[in-house]
Amino acid sequence: MPPSVVLDVQPTIGTRSHGLTAKQSMRGHMHGPAVVTDSVKLWKTLSSNGVLASFHPILVEVPQFPVLVVIDLDCNYSLKLLTMVNKEMFAFPYRWLLISTNESSTMISTVFAMNIVLNSDVVLARHAEAGNYTLTKIYRLEPNLEIIQEKFGYWEDRSGLVLVSKRSGRRNLSKITLNTCLVVTVNDSLLHLTDKRERHIDTISKVSYALLLHLGDILNATLKYSVQNTWGYQGNQSDWNGMIGELQRGEAVIGGTVLFLRSDRIPVIDYVGMTIPTRSKFVFKQPKLSYVVNVYALPFNWTVWLSLLFMVLFIVTTLYEAIKWNNCTKENMRKRNYFESKPVLLDIIFLAFGAVCQQGSTFTPSNASGRIITILMFTSLMFLYTAYSANIVALLQSSSNNIRTLTDLLNSRLSVGVDDTVFNRFYFPHATEPVRKALYQQKVAPLRQSPRYFSIRDGIEMMRNDHFAFHMETGVGYQFVLQTFQEHEKCGLTEIQFLQVSDPALALQKNTPYKKLIQIGLRKIHESGLQMREVSLLYTKKPICLNKASSFVNVGLVDCYLASAILLIGVILSLAIFLFEIILSKQ
């Protein structure tokens, strides 16, 4: 028979017959001499067991599904074939069945010297007696360690495959050393990795370290740590620096500090699913409504303002006609005082304006109809004035909800700052989306100005005292908010996402044989609640507003800027008219 047969099996529901599943489809690749003759024999055997099969001369590409490779170690061609595949193919998706009928064959020793690592799936079938075979799984924990033989089962002609144990011992790494790289931006953090002090510094590294301690216990492995001050970014060449550089060069197996998923990193490292739910966002107190819009126009909508205008015009017209009609009667003409001034339209307009502002006027109608109209005008406008004033008081104490997106933040009058971290200094200048790029260029790093990077302590203090939006890691920053903000100041905190990234995940050396084992360990940490516990010890949730009503709002000049602007315009206009009158009087 040929030294190897490669079988790609795609199972469907069927019945078992001597270890083969009926109604399966199978694609085979046969290598070695007498391929045609042996492929026909194998095809007949599979067909008799209800298995559809097709054969091809070579295995041209790495498949995306598990592949079973069967090798006859007694064939002379098998040594050459094993030498060809020794470097990379003893790993997923290949599964190997090595058959030997000669117990004293030197091929067994040759197989034990192969690169069969932890994630290899290699079964050695040794002939026992009368067509029976013992099945042993073989692997090694490290390339330089002895091969480990694990009894898997046996094969009998009558009963077929019999499994002895499904539990694998390869989950115990027997204290072998796994090189692990941590990212620490402040050296003092190495002194506080486990004591929960200085929680706001290198928080994500401290959480990752705590979880790695659990992972080492689960795997029974020794983690040997190295330290870098950056996660790693690609230089002008294909080389990477920082933690990713160590993973790329094979100096580390585990990237001990979680990092963001980026497409340019995928060819260099493998991500595994220990995500830490942390977010970096712009956080700010929603500014007062008067800081964003003109509150003096908000109490009434445009229909009320329009109705008010028509009502005042109607009252002025009616009052003017009533006074004019009264003055035109002969009796009134005779009773008219010589020194009484003749009412004009301007007097009535000033009277109406005074009524709108709830102020008096020097002019008062003398006839009954005019006085009745004046009383009705003052009464109706009094209710409108009261409603307007009450709304103004409420609006001056209100926070706006207008800043909800990055575009709103860019167009607002809020100043902006960013937490001074390695990844913020990388991601902000490299933003390509138009709004994010404009936000960085206009507010974070304006032309001819120093970039606005602050420590997290200073940034949160500015956020408390000023109209300021601070980009920070929220789980860390909210710890300072709880410590420094008064209860009512916690109300109205708003978050806006800037970084277009998902939750950070753990990184491994590319194609490391420990990947699956580490994934299983991380899943256990997550399902047991250890991950949630470690995260909650170092990260703080967003504060809850408990007593918003206790806040006292000061009214500043910015709240009264429209009234101040009207007063200033009036003073300037009156001075201009005064000067104009002086000039006219001299002429």
UniProtKB/TrEMBL annotation:
Keywords on record: Cell membrane, Glycoprotein, Membrane, Receptor, Transmembrane, Transmembrane helix
The keyword Phosphoprotein is assigned to this record: no
Gene Ontology molecular function, alphabetical: ligand-gated monoatomic ion channel activity
Subcellular localization: Cell membrane
InterPro entries reported for this sequence: Insect_Ionotropic_Sensory_Rcpt, Iontro_rcpt_C
Membrane-topology annotation of the record: Multi-pass membrane protein
Gene Ontology CC: plasma membrane
Family classification: Belongs to the glutamate-gated ion channel (TC 1.A.10.1) family.
Alphabetized Gene3D superfamilies for the sequence: 1.10.287.70, Periplasmic binding protein-like II (3.40.190.10)
Domain Ionotropic glutamate receptor C-terminal per the UniProt entry, residue ranges: 302-488
Main location (coarse class): membrane
Record-annotated membrane-spanning stretches: 302-323, 344-361, 373-396, 560-584
Protein name in UniProt: Ionotropic glutamate receptor C-terminal domain-containing protein
GO biological process: detection of stimulus involved in sensory perception
